[in-house]
Amino acid sequence: MRIYLSVDMEGISGVTRWQDVIAAGQDYQAARSWMTADVNAAVAGARAAGATEFVVEENHGVEMLCNLLLDEIDPEVDIVRGSPRGGATTMAALDDSFDAMFLVGHHAKVRDYPGIGAHTISYGDYADVRMNGRTIGEPEMFIIAAAQHGVPCALIAGDDVVCAEVAKLVPGVCSAIVKRALSHTGGVIIPPVRAQRVVFDAAVAAVECVRNGTVAPIEFDSNFEFEIELRKPLSDEARTVIGQRFSEFQILGDRTLAFAANDMQLAFRRAAISSFLANTPAAVRYY
Ligand SMILES: [Zn+2]
Questions:
Q1: Which of 103, 175, 204, 256 can bridge 49 by disulfide, Cβ–Cβ 3.0-4.6 Å?
Q2: Which residues keep their CB under 5 angstroms from ion ligand 1?
Q3: CA 236 to centroid of ligand 1, rounded, Å
Q4: Domain range for residue 272?
Q5: Are residues 170 and 68 in the same domain?
Q6: Residue 192: its H or E element
Q7: Residue 219 in domain
Q8: Are residues 168 and 103 part of one domain?
């Protein structure tokens, strides 16, 4: 059994605030170690239950998506690291060769209070990200992208808020709740060593669910209509560049970019590039 494991950082055990997941933060180096240990726990649990191959994709957008500690990670996994990645900056390794997807260290969607580190794609720039009229988070985008390849999401590891979000989307998904959110920057934390036991046990259960067929790729409608509501109004320069060179984007009002896609990897790329279009429009060459 082959597992695709997407790892982000805000939902890692022990991580509590934004400063824990950026290079300047007091606990960033420790958080890299916790992140690696949560991945190892998921891999060990899945392996104990019979999974044999693992591709771990780094999806935390700090330091060009290089955050795992390679000297500490399970030596039998393959790792997708760094960027760009020849197209999608996330989901680059996700294809139909996998039997299941694990989401480890993922976080709640933007506006989902109290979710620790809750945001969708851009913590600083996006006030809301809507798909077909409702707020969407990164886990749902991954879950739909996996479903496009016929791959079910079997495990979510993170705080109680993101686990509840994913449980609503994916009946039967296994959850590893490693902390209980009290605010975007505070929570009740299980120390990482104990949290890793929770992740291990959930990964064992997840592989059993895959084997028994009790988790399935979700149903979805592939007419994805996105709106990215920015925190700040678009500059005149951004409006001009987008209007002249990026006809796939529409500008709604003073701070919202809209686009359509019928492929979730493309939608994710467009959602991600929106912050660059808003902040450094002249520098955006491709995506
Ligand atoms: Zn992240």
A1: 204
A2: 8-9, 60
A3: 30
A4: 224-283
A5: yes
A6: helix 192-212
A7: no
A8: yes
Is residue 205 situated within a structural domain? yes
Are 169 and 147 in contact by the 8 Å Cβ rule? The answer is no
CA 213 / ligand 1 centre spacing (Å): 30
- Shared-domain flag, residues 171 and 237: no
Same domain, 228 and 158: no
Which pair of tokens denotes residue 98? 């996998």
Contact 198, 130 (CB under 8 A): no
Reported residue count of the chain is 287
Predicted TM-score (pTM) of the model is 0.96
Amino acid identity of residue 262, one-letter, is N
**Which residue(s) pair with 53 in the sheet?**
2
Q: Return the closest-CA partner of residue 79 out of 89, 96, 93, 97.
A: 93
Q: Which of 18-27, 83-92, 101-110, 169-178 has the lowest mean pLDDT?
A: 83-92
Mean of all residue pLDDT scores within the chain: 96
Identify whether residues 186 and 243 lie together within a single domain. no
